[in-house]
Amino acid sequence: NRIYQSLLQHKEKGQKSFAVLIDPDKVTVEKIDELTALAIEARVDYLLVGGSLVVTNRLDEVVQQIKKNCNIPVILFPGSPSQITPYADALLYLSLISGRNAELLIGQHVISAPFVKQSRLEIISTGYMVIDGGAPTTVSYISNAAPVPADKNEIAMCTAMAGEMLGMKLIYMDAGSGAKRPITESMIEKVAQIIEVPLVIGGGITDPEKAYRNCKAGADMIVIGNAIEKDASLIREMSAAIHSVPKVSRTI
Ligand code: 1GP
Predict the structure, then answer these.
(1) 79 in ligand 1 pocket by Cβ < 6 Å?
(2) CB distance 205 to ligand 1 below 6 Å
């Protein structure tokens, strides 16, 4: 579990990580080449590949092209069990703990378990929490489950705590891709304080200042997709902002 260990080490040192989310539906080979060149230059920590609704079957091809170009670890962020490829390094094994849709909590995992195991990917058990992003997002619609209301910090805290106690190795709070309103720093702070495992934050982050403030509030990893799809050069500024957060080592 090389990748998870690197996440834990970063967390211990108070070092923040930046992950660029690549939607396999939206990238051409040329775009992948552009993104990976920028990601290497800007020292992006991880590349996430996936999305709630992936319609093409180019996943293998996209991941292979990324791996050809760079050594940045590729972590799958699947919207469904069909989005798995052995060419990646790791898989966020997501259980939608903010929802009450049994299929996304455990049903699909049971169906795909033999296939996932065979893939030999590093499996990172992830408590996935969708937070209301101000308007319906693809994930809130597709998941057929109510997101956590944006101002209910207590619900987010209790959900994250429960996820951690159930053994999840990572908590990922997501306002949904392209969310109108990203997750508040106050919610991030409350959740970060109450859990020990790394905290990933994404959804609707468009400016480097917000990414920086999220890290200061306690996020360990920031995921950005949409804003980079619109302007790939943002990778540089985002990476600089996230990596400039003063390191505060963890005192246990
Ligand atoms: C979505 O958290 C990710 O699942 C990233 O969101 O595309 O809005 O950056 P954006």
Answers:
(1) no
(2) yes
Q: What is the pLDDT along the chain (252 residues), one digit of tens a residue?
A: 899 999 999 999 999 999 999 999 999 999 999 999 999 999 999 999 998 777 778 999 999 999 999 999 999 999 888 889 999 999 999 999 999 999 999 999 999 999 999 999 999 999 999 999 999 999 989 999 999 999 999 999 999 999 999 999 999 999 999 999 999 999 999 999 999 999 999 999 999 999 999 999 999 999 999 999 999 999 999 999 999 999 987 665
DSSP code string of 58-120: -HHHHHHHHHHH--S-EEEEESSTT---TTSSEEEEEEETTS--HIIIIIHHHHHHHHHHHTT
Does the domain at 2-243 match CATH 3.10.20.30? Answer given as: no
Q: Ligand 1: which of 27, 44, 174 to mutate, judged by most atoms within 8 Å of the beta carbon?
A: 174
